[in-house]
């Protein structure tokens, strides 16, 4: 991983305490991933929120990084919404500040980003899309609902093996306020700590 990102992870993310209530909420995701590992099958995770603009991207990106940090192979993380909009620019800004290297590879109203966390790893392709986009898996995946609006408005996710609710408050509430940077930074860290907790609890043969 990039040194600045690894330093940020070691200082702010990995091995940090989370509440017992949140551990209980995260347990179904741990069990789903552990089952896939035990069966030696790919692990496909699709993080879903309403607009695929903030929380679902933080979740997708940090879950992919956590899988690399803990050397969990065969993990493929995706994100989507009940509608597509655009990745909110503050999300990109915060991730860059935390140590990611991000390039816009296609501009427009819904830009496409290459989000890199290491010199050798494949970049995460970030853009807003619906959860059933052709870019996302059609079957054999877990649908992880990251907001209540998507959870309530999307009662059925075609092709998913498991539906798991891991809700996060929307940092959008801070948009155009003085505390916006602080709020987005805190949300990224909160989600990252929980994704790192999930992957730290897995039993990996010969790790």
Structure in a nutshell:
This protein is of the alpha/beta class and 207 residues long.
What does this protein look like?
The protein has 207 residues and is α/β, with parallel strands linked by helices. Helices cover 39% and strands 19% of the residues. It has 6 helices and 7 strands. A 4-stranded parallel sheet has the order 2-1-6-7. Strands 3-4-5 form a 3-stranded antiparallel sheet, covered by helices on one side. A hairpin with a 5-residue loop joins strand 3 and strand 4 (112-116). Helix 3 (55-69) crosses helix 6. The mean pLDDT is 95.
Topology, element by element:
Blueprint: H1 3-13, H2 20-38, E1 43-49, H3 55-69, E2 75-81, H4 89-97, E3 101-106, E4 112-116, E5 124-126, E6 141-145, H5 148-153, E7 160-165, H6 180-200
Parallel strand pairs: 1-2, 1-6, 6-7
Antiparallel strand pairs: 3-4, 4-5
Helix pairs in contact: 2-6, 3-6, 4-6
Descriptive keywords:
19% strand; 207 residues; 3-stranded antiparallel β-sheet; single chain; alpha/beta
- What is the makeup of the main sheet? 4 strands, parallel
Overall average residue pLDDT: 95
- Compute the separation of the termini in Å: 18 Å
Strand fraction: 15-25%
Structural class determined from secondary elements:
alpha/beta
Give the neighbour order of strands across the main sheet: 2-1-6-7
The helical percent reads 25-40%
Helix-strand sequence? HHEHEHEEEEHEH
Oligomeric state as shown: single chain
The count of strands amounts to 7
Number of helices: 6
Which residues form runs of ≥5 with pLDDT under 50? none
